[in-house]
């Protein structure tokens, strides 16, 4: 999932539309971008990782640090939490509950 979120479209020439490209496309934590990011992740999972369906994605700005986007992905009842820092362009894993 993390690789799909960070992968830039065109990285895999055989599947040019694969990848969310969070680093290039979602640099700011505006509400409209959160909705687009959620939809993009869900669509990418449905297309390229159907074994993870059903998937639920919730993205939100971190109220304590506006440079961070919190991404919560639920797959088969397991919640995965990731944080993307737009300043450092790092996607880090918080936990799987």
Structure write-up:
This protein has a four-stranded antiparallel sheet, with helices on one face. The model has no long low-confidence stretch (mean pLDDT 89). The relative contact order is 0.18. The chain is built from three helices and four strands, in the order H-H-H-E-E-E-E. The chain is of the alpha+beta class and 97 residues long. It has helices at residues 2-6, 22-25, 31-48; strands at residues 55-62, 65-75, 78-85, 90-96.
Layout: helices, strands, pairs:
Elements: H1 2-6, H2 22-25, H3 31-48, E1 55-62, E2 65-75, E3 78-85, E4 90-96
Antiparallel strand pairs: 1-2, 2-3, 3-4
In which order are the strands of the major sheet placed?
1-2-3-4
Spans of at least 5 consecutive residues whose pLDDT stays below 50 are none
The share of residues in helices is 25-40%
Helical segment count:
3
Order of helices and strands: HHHEEEE
Derived from helix and strand composition plus strand pairing, the structural class reads alpha+beta
* Number of beta-strand segments: 4
Strand content: 35-45%
